[in-house]
Amino acid sequence: MIPPVDLTEQFKTIQTEVNAAVAAVLASGQYINGPVVQSFADAFGEYVGTDHCVVCNSGTDALYLALRALNIGPGDEVITSPFTFIATAETISAVGATPVFVDIDLATFNLDVTKLEAAISDRTRAIMPVHLFGRPVDLGPILDLATRYNLVVIEDCAQATGADWHGRQVGSLGHVGCFSFFPTKTWAAAAMAALLPPKTVTWPLR
Ligand SMILES: Cc1ncc(COP(=O)(O)O)c(C=O)c1O
To answer: Where residue 158 sits, what CATH number does that domain have?
Structure first.
């Protein structure tokens, strides 16, 4: 049987470097927030094109911490997609806010941006678009609405590391971008794509 995901094959191609890097961290004794974590944050922030990059333990916590940092909580509404991993809506609920779902565009599986404005209420604080399956959401209308209604945009980029929208990386266009390094996500492909230009995932989609 051929397994649908076999991460060991990829590991074998970089085994020497990975083992040496892990051994160096273990030998340093700095297991939490050491210089290696900081250098990764600096490199990833530069890759995405943001002024700041903070590393945390998961994409779920990145979304949760972004909502907390923006003081979003009970009584607030956050507009998002119903077609995503559970963490998107779960973190909105976890801070005490209410997820408000706007339907998806069947051509892209991302938020249907033409239906967003009708979902904005007095309690809306944020829009959380999801760049699903490596495909960037059309951010233009979302950023316009955010400016007009004074909302924040928290991009869920968990599935789209390396995707760009009109030449700018997803995660650098809204107020906050949240990424995931879960092993099956796109970051490994993005790391390869960064080494092998030209990039293949761009908006408008071709
Ligand atoms: C769209 C989306 N958002 C958030 C997450 C959460 O990321 P993590 O698994 O790193 O917590 C995932 C992946 O699991 C995801 O696919």
So the answer is: 3.40.640.10
